[in-house]
Amino acid sequence: MYTHVNVYTSPAIHGAAEELLSPPLRPYNITCIWAENLPEDMRVAVIGAGVIGLATAQSIYEQYHSIVSPLTIEVYADCFTPLTTSDGAAGLWQPYLYNKGNVQETEWNKQTFDYLLSCLSSPESIQMGIFLQSGYNLCTEPAPDPSFKDIVLGFRQLTERELQMFPGYNHGWFNTALMVEGKAYLPWLMDWLQKRGVTFYHRKIKSFKELAETGADVIINCTGVRSGELQPDPELKPGRGQIVKVDAPWLKHWIITHSSTESVYNSPYIIPGSRLVTVGGIFQLENWSEQNNSTDHKKIWESACQLEPSLKHARIVEDWAGLRPVRSKVRLERETIQSGATTIEVIHNYGHGGFGLTIHRGCAQEAARLFGQIVEKGKGPKARL
Amino acid sequence: MKSVRVVVVGAGVIGFSTAVCIAEALPFCSVTLLAEKFSPDTTSDGAAGILFAAEFPDIPMERQKRWFKYSFDHLLAIAQSKHSPEAGVMLTSGWQIFRDIPADKKPFWSEFVIGFRVMTDSELKRFPDHTFGQAFTTIKCECSSYLPWLEKSFRKAGGQVERRKLNSLEELINSYEIIVNCSGLGSKTLVGDNKVYPVRGQVLKVEAPWLKHFIRDGDGKTYIYPGIHSVTVGGTRQEGDWRLQADEGDTKGILERCSGLEPSISKAKVLSEWVGLRPGRRNPRVEKELVQLQGRRVPVVHNYGHGGWGVTLAWGTALDALGLVRQCLHEMPLQANL
Question: Where does D-dopa bind (chain A) (predicted)?
Fold first, then answer.
């Protein structure tokens, strides 16, 4: 039985490829694909340095740096860690309860979970900000099992005794999930990329054309909530969130509540991190304010203390407000834009709402696959015949 | 009516739990807690304090279940309240894993902890050397906070505290009518119980705030218990070993074994080492007796010998001891009540 391997090779490196493929690599069934049309030099410009932008750069590098040579990847952003939306997120891997038929997104969520789980055994897991944490999803009335029940570890219904611990909630689930803290994960990703030659530019990009004119072959649009500034998108809206970060190291479980009357994230949640606990429960659609609001603070704090009385003794460290890039579904697709005589290849990867960290790897891999389509077409402006 | 004077000997988790039970339930008694060592210098202080039981061979199962259940429910109420951080009592979830499938897959205490279930195959993948596991939520009770909190409750209930080294129970008979002996390993000399022996335990405290679950090997020798400010990793179970200094070989062994279960431990900063001598005994001694002291028959209630299960059984055995004190009160000759 053979393992099938495709080897993309070009005239320039065919000799070296032959050597690599001789025994002992057999018995692999190797197909040499003469890729005369593969571009030998490509410049990829990623706009956005949140988790989506950085992870997409990583996936493209992983999958194509040995196929396209040289592959130049540049990341342009108006803000970098620790000031991105990804940095403010608590970092709990958990999709919305129900995927409303969007099985594609559930698959990307699963890929991300499995990927993060495999990172746990890496010696770099702590630097990556990845660790396991268990907790409670609480509902005010019986609800169908969530879309992630078979993805997380040890999923089960809550026992009577557990429900008694949370008055006002009569149904829910317990499971072990993963945490991926943006404040550690983003710097780790940037370091990973930097070591492999990816360069970063602190600059606000005003148009796709601007980058195309400087010679970018493919543009990856990971501009999150401000994507509308590059290309109007009526489906993209800010979902404002506010959180309070407190010092409460005796808390070791996350607690997410769900209300049938409130929208997701507008119900209290408490998520312990590696150092501080994130307390939240605000979701305001179409509110663009990134300022902390004292009414919101009061609402968050009072409902959280009701949920977890011991919070009364917690030292409040800081408040933070951020804008989730909310969209009916993630925009992850190619677009070929005609600008005069030139064609601009764009891959959109934005609109991940409150589940960017949860879905990032699956989306990044898909974006890389779309990039691969462009590579294989050989229609990049610098393709050599 | 002159109040009956009760003295509780020992300021560990057993002594203070028992003292609080008595002082709160018997307001007409004057209760004094007397000990040489107080927190943070007791055996209880170094214990990780995870609620988790073992089976004693000679105690009726109903009584053991009661001990565990009452202790658990008592501490659960504290963990759920706003007093949780001050008392050092919190909820903790995690896994107990076994290399070989144990004979008893569902131990007696499984019905009293929260959410007890067998681990799934995907959960066990992280532990390739282990073939079976149990997942549950239990309580962690950190005595360095819990003992001062108990003392606060004790004083509030009118209790008095005295720091004193006791060489013999005879020193107490002129000041107290009932003696409650919670002297742990000290019972060996204080009441001459040669069935008590030390079980040496060494632990390390490491800084690993990203660890949120406990992991315990079913053999009891390797465990990782995340606490409020540090993670306790251990351990050792050396019977008859009286050494109180940390052993370098033990430290190395603990770090190796714990890193085997949780690789990130090898990256954790070691904050401190600690050694405690568990008051080992075949069964805990929770019973009353009349002791001949200087010509008098003095009622003594014993509550000691809990081994490595002191925190786990403290409240349940304290309630039993309270019951025994009540019996002593009923049986006392009338002149004590004048």
Answer: 94, 258, 269, 324, 354
